[in-house]
Amino acid sequence: MADDKTEGTAKDTAGKIKETAGDVTGNEDLQTEGQADQAEGKVQKGIGKLKDKLSGDR
């Protein structure tokens, strides 16, 4: 199973792709969805970093 940092990075990257696709096509819904995915991914990465810090991992 992937850890939160890895999954968060994947969501962030997918969000950037969606946002860019929305920009290119003029699809505001896709842009917004991509931005939301990026925010979710960044939060998930932060949780993963916090878990690592609390467990003593780096």
Automatic annotation (TrEMBL):
Transmembrane segments: none annotated. Pfam families: CsbD. Gene3D superfamilies: YjbJ. InterPro entries: CsbD (IPR008462), YjbJ_sf (IPR036629). Residues 4-55 form the CsbD-like domain. Residues 1-58 are annotated as: Disordered. It comes from the Bacteria. Belongs to the UPF0337 (CsbD) family. This is CsbD family protein. It comes from Mesobaculum littorinae. The lineage of its organism: Bacteria, Pseudomonadati, Pseudomonadota, Alphaproteobacteria, Rhodobacterales.
